Amino acid sequence: MQPEEKFPLSHSTSSPSKTIWSVGGGKGGTGKSFIAASLAIYFASQKNNVILIDADLGGPNLHTLLGINNSTLDLGHFFANKVSSLKQTLVQTPFQGLKLIKGTDKIPFTANLNYYKKLKFIRHIKNFEADRIIIDIGTGTAYNYLDFFILSNPGIIVINPEPTSIENAYYFLKSCLIRILKSYINYYKIQNLVRKIADSTENNSKSIYSFFNAIISQDKSYAHLLYRALRKFKPCLIVNKAKTKQDWLLGESMVDVIQKYLVIKAKFLGTVPYDEKVHLSLKNFSSFMTTYPDSEAAQSIRSIASKLSKNCE
Amino acid sequence: MKGIKKIENMDYYEILNLTKDASPSDIERAYHLGKATYGPNSLAPYRLLSEEERKFMLKKIEEAYQNLKDPEKKKLYDLKMLKKGPEWENKAYFRKSTKKLKIEDAENHPGFWKKIKHFLFQPPRK
């Protein structure tokens, strides 16, 4: 009997008029917050209602990037049940059309979010009325960050042309894959099937091919189900701080490698060149997109934003 | 399941991420991108591919390019792919082979065909 297909991690419930993008990647310092803030500022300037959420629970920075220094309600208040609705933590930014939900720097240990608070958080995000919702998620592969990433359509990975960043990006993607497969396996209660496969998998290879070939031989319908679940996961990739000609080819190269070896259909959005002015704008507490709108980096971000919009139409 | 293929089972178009109507410039571009992706100085395969896998991929890319850049070789390859046919799943689970059945394979029932002919060609009842 064909198993009925339902998504345990529902990542396709956004209405056509609302999109949820997460900006993540696994490694710190790649420019996720900068990209998230820049995209949000750009979309707000195009007369969209944008909500930017700082879900970097261990180290929020978006309020600094947007020039919000006063003390306001933040995510910590929501998780500590000091406010009933996430909407109460929305803060107007200096940019028309753009509102921010600050990460907390007052209430400690917010990063250790439990399952129910995470579900509540996701539910409230989905109820927002906004054209674009951009979530800046933290570094690492904690379940919370993986779930925020998988929830969005699409998730955006920001990498730098450095071995450490690339390595962490692949690790992050593999973690997302396993998280998706595991959630479907638990939902359809086919753990026994998977355990049987793990015992018989050729040479104990944990590759995606071996896993699916083994499942196909046991139960084709579940193999199709898991395969379709994976195919719905379509992350996007941005290369930030590119300097050389090789750096500019990195994005397309990585998409090819990811498709062939991780069986994920990733999409390359664009490359943002390294620009010293980004550091200058940070030090001066000014927005890069509005202070240096004609710079090559700003033009790249606008081109990326345009591709993102088309991706969602 | 289309997409779950090992590298060694991919065709040349899949290796170079091309469609069958790819132009010579598309093939050229795909080849150079492939070489840049899996070349020794590339960061893209870092920690995901072993050195052996990387070299194997480079070899496949070269092979794909040599066969697709020449219009005559490409034509022959396309014909070979066409003869091979689509990858249909074998739904005939009761049969071990999908080769065409010959009449000799049928079991011998004496008078069977006589009965069938009589049934098919019996005159209609008035």
Verbal overview:
- The complex is a heterodimer of chains A (313) and B (126).
- Chain A is α/β, with parallel strands linked by helices and 313 residues long.
- Chain A has a domain at 19-163 and 235-256 and 266-312: P-loop containing nucleotide triphosphate hydrolases (Rossmann fold, 3-Layer(aba) Sandwich), CATH 3.40.50.300.
- Chain A has helices at residues 32-45, 62-65, 75-79, 115-126, 143-151, 163-187, 191-200, 208-218, 220-231, 245-261, 276-283, 288-291, 296-312, and strands spanning 19-24, 50-55, 90-92, 98-101, 132-137, 155-159, 236-242, 267-273.
- In chain A, helix 10 links the parallel strand 7 and strand 8 (267-273).
- In chain A, helix 1 (32-45) crosses helix 13 (296-312), helix 5 (143-151) crosses helix 6 (163-187) and helix 7 (191-200) packs across helix 8 (208-218).
- Chain A is globular, with a radius of gyration of 20 Å.
- Mean pLDDT of chain A is 84; it is low at 1-8 and 10-16.
- Chain B has 126 residues and is mainly α.
- Chain B has a domain at 7-88: Helix Hairpins, CATH 1.10.287.
- In chain B, helix 2 runs antiparallel to helix 3 (51-69) and helix 3 packs across helix 4.
- The radius of gyration of chain B is 25 Å and the shape is elongated.
- The A-B interface holds A 161-163, 166-167, 170, 208-209, 212-213, 216, 223-224, 227, 231, 246, 249-250, 252-254, 256-257, 259-263 and B 1, 3-4, 6-7, 10, 17, 33-34, 36-37, 41-49, 57.
Chart the SSEs and their pairings.
The complex is a heterodimer of chains A (313) and B (126).
Chain A: E1 19-24, H1 32-45, E2 50-55, H2 62-65, H3 75-79, E3 90-92, E4 98-101, H4 115-126, E5 132-137, H5 143-151, E6 155-159, H6 163-187, H7 191-200, H8 208-218, H9 220-231, E7 236-242, H10 245-261, E8 267-273, H11 276-283, H12 288-291, H13 296-312
Parallel strand pairs in A: 1-5, 1-6, 2-4, 2-5, 6-7, 7-8
Antiparallel strand pairs in A: 3-4
Chain B: H1 12-15, H2 24-38, H3 51-69, H4 71-84, H5 112-121
Helix pairs in contact in B: 2-3, 3-4
